[in-house]
């Protein structure tokens, strides 16, 4: 007889991304001219040095990198979504507005922007695994068209790049948030809105179990096999693993537990 634990471990999650990264050491071709960036984003820089800075990763070891522009872009992006959502949802509470903003400015969402518009092709860097990480990310997000809610490993360099470009445009246009929003409004689509906002799997699991007076426990197996088990009322209901990040392993474990919840509890009891 196949146990629920075997079902969860063998078929409950797709952890193909956890396979060992064995990337052939090949020579990466130089990135194309940055002239193509201005055509993609629809903005012509007055100071081309800002454009160059935005696409220079710290791994390159040059005297400048995009870290400072990333810092600026992160703040500007939060302000842009704060302003836009304040007027779009006049009756929404600050708590929900915060969740909406967070979903639109996190690494998962921004990395998708870089991939969708091929901006990563222009990034100057010396990160030997980045190209393979981008390939895996591009494949995995097909299962989650809008947002993975913590289930996919995100190449942080991609999200940083988008924030750097936003920061560069902000500085170049004399700090006009109206111009920045005009440039990036369409690039950031599809924007997550109230009707498409999803609950994080860990939050969803806790809320589901709390309503039914069920105890949730995450068992840390990280040192053994980079995974976490989920027990609900001391019954095994799910497992998730991730080779590099504990947080993603926990999220996948919660998602797997949610998917398998009906196997232990009556189907009518798991409807939210």
UniProtKB/TrEMBL annotation:
Keywords tagged on the record: Hydrolase, RNA-binding
PANTHER family: DICER-RELATED, RNASE II-LIKE 1
Limits of the RNase III domain: 34-174
Name of the protein this chain belongs to: RNase III domain-containing protein
Disordered, as annotated region: 9-34
Pfam families: dsrm, Ribonuclease_3
Keyword Lyase: no
Coiled-coil stretches noted in the UniProt entry, renumbered to this chain: none
Stored InterPro entries: dsRBD_dom (IPR014720), RNase_III_dom (IPR000999), RNase_III_sf (IPR036389)
Source lineage: Eukaryota, Viridiplantae, Streptophyta, Embryophyta, Tracheophyta
